[in-house]
Amino acid sequence: MRFPPSDGVLPASPNESDAQPVEAWAPREVIVPAESVPEQLHASARTWPRRVAVDFLRRTTTYRDLERRVLRAAQGLLDLGVRAGDRVAIVMPNCTSHVVAFYAALRVGAVVVEHNPTYPASQLAHQLADSGALVAIAWEPSVPAALAAREGSALRTVVAVDLTADLPRSSRLMLSLPLRAARRARATMRGPVPRAAVRWESVLEAPELPESHPFPGADDVAILQYTGGTTGTPKGAVLTHRNLLANAVQCEEWTRMGRGEQTMVGALPFFHAFGLQTLLVLGIRTASTLVPFPRFDPEAIVASQRRRPATFFPAVPPMLERTVRVAAAKGVDLTSFSFAFSGAMPLPAQTAREWESATGGYAIEGYGMTETGPVALGNPVSPARRPGSLGLPFPSTQIRVVDPETLDDVSDGTRGELLVRGPQVFRGYWNRPEESAAQLLEDGWLRTGDIVVRDETGFVTLVDRIKEMIVTGGFKVYPSQVEDHLREMPGVADVAVVGMPAGDIGEKVVAAVVLDGTVPEISLADLRAWAAQHLTGYALPKELHVVSELPRSLIGKVLRRSVKEGLLAGTADDAGRADADGAGGAGDPARATTDATAS
Asked: What residue ranges are annotated as transmembrane (predicted)?
C-alpha cells in the first residue's frame, strides 16, 4: 500500500486541530487470532510461496524455501533433544540463518531467548544460566563464549553458524581469495569452532518436520527477552505467542500495511525487541520481503535500494538521518518508502522533516518497551503525526497517567507515570515473582517508569524518567551497572555515570571518576578497555572526567543529577578529559549490532 505523500512540512506545534479520532486511521479494537507465531510463516508460505522472504546481501530465499529450511531445522532441534517449553538461545547478527533458527525453535514449541552477539562472555553466561537454555545457536565468533557458559548452567549443546554460508556464491568466492581485504572481511564474519560445537549445517541435514507436528498454543511462552525493565537488573520478559501476535496485528492495522506488498529494511537488530517484532514477526505475518543487514551500514542500505527498493524502514532516528544523507550524496532515490517507524528514542523534528522530504512518505514515532511487546503508542500515519510526541494508544490498548506515589489518575496536562494495559503486555519476568508483581499490577496495568504528559487531544509526550537510565542510540544503559564494573578497576576510588546530550544518538555515557592515588592517571582508553571485559559496546563510557570528589546526599548516595548539572555547566573539577566520539565499531550504538560486514 502506498500512502498519500507527505509534503515534508511538519506541524509547528501540537494543537487541537491536528487531532483525529483513532478510527480515522485504525480501529479502536483489534481481534487477535488464537494462533501461534510460526503459523504466520506457514500461512505466508502457502499464500505467497514464490515471493522473496529474505534478501540477505543479494542472496534471496523465497517463502516456500524459507519454510522448508525452518522445518528441517525444527526436526534437527528435535533430534538434539529440544522439546516444547525448552529454551533455545540465539546469538547471531541479522542474517537468513537467524530467521530460520527463530522460527524453527518456535515451530517445535521451544522458547526463544535472543542475545546480543557482541556481549562479553560474562554477560552472555549470566543470561544463558538465568534462562536455563539447553541449546545455543551462535555465530562462530560467539561460540567460544557460549561453550564457556556451559559450566554452571543447563546449556548442553552449542550450534555454530557460519555466517558466510548465507551469502551468495560470488561473495563466498571473493572471501576465499588470498587477498588482505578478503582476509579482513572473512575475519569479521568467522571464527574458530571447537570440536565441542555442533555445526548448523548438520542440523539442517535433518528431514522436514512432519506437518502433523502440533503448533504451539497461543498462550504458550514464545520468547524470553532480556531487559533491564525499570530497575536496571537484566531479567527475561516473558512474552507469549498471543502477546507477539497481538502487537503484530496492532501494527498491521495502525499502518494499514498490505500483505505481500512490503519490502522492509532490516537494520534494527533482530535480538532487540523493536527489530524482533517489526521484522521477524510483523514482517513474516505480512509476507513482506526482509532485507537484513548484520550491522547498520547506511551505504549498504543505499546500495540495496538501487536493486530492491524498500517501502518500510523500522529504525531509530540516527538510522533515518544517516541513510538520507548518504542517499543524497550518492544520488539514490528513496521515494519507494511509504513510511518509517521510529522508536527507542525521541524523533527530532529536523530528522523527520529530512526523511519526509527525501521520501515523500511519513516518519512515524512510536513508543513502547520490551514488556509491551514492544509497541504501545504511536503517531497516526497521517498529517496529524507529531514528531517529538509518543502519539496515541494502539488499538485495544489502554493507558493511564498517574501519580507515581499514589497511583491515582492525574488530569490532562499534569505530569505522571504512564501505565499501559493491552493484549501485548507481557506475562511477567522469568523466575522473578517479586519484580513482576512490582511492575505488573494485579488488574493488568503495567508500570512503565516513564513520566509523561497527556494533552486534551489524547497525545502523550515523554518528559522524564523515573529511573536515571541512559538512552544511547536507542539502547538502554543503566548507570549502576556501569559503575559497579568501573569501581573494580585498579586506581578507581569512586565513580558516577550519567547520560549527556549527544546529538543524533540521544545521550552518551559519561563517567566522572575519583582516583585513589595508587595510579598516576587513568585514560579513557584504559577505562573502556577495563569496562569492555564486562559490558557491551554501547555501554562503554564515551567521555571521562577525573574529579576530586562526587556530590552526595545526607545519607551518602552519589547525586548523579548534580554530577550531570555540573558537567553541563562546565563546573566539574576536571583533572583531565578524553572523548571517544567517533570510535565507531561495535561500541557505536547507532551502528546497532556488530562489526561483521560482507561485500
From this structure: none
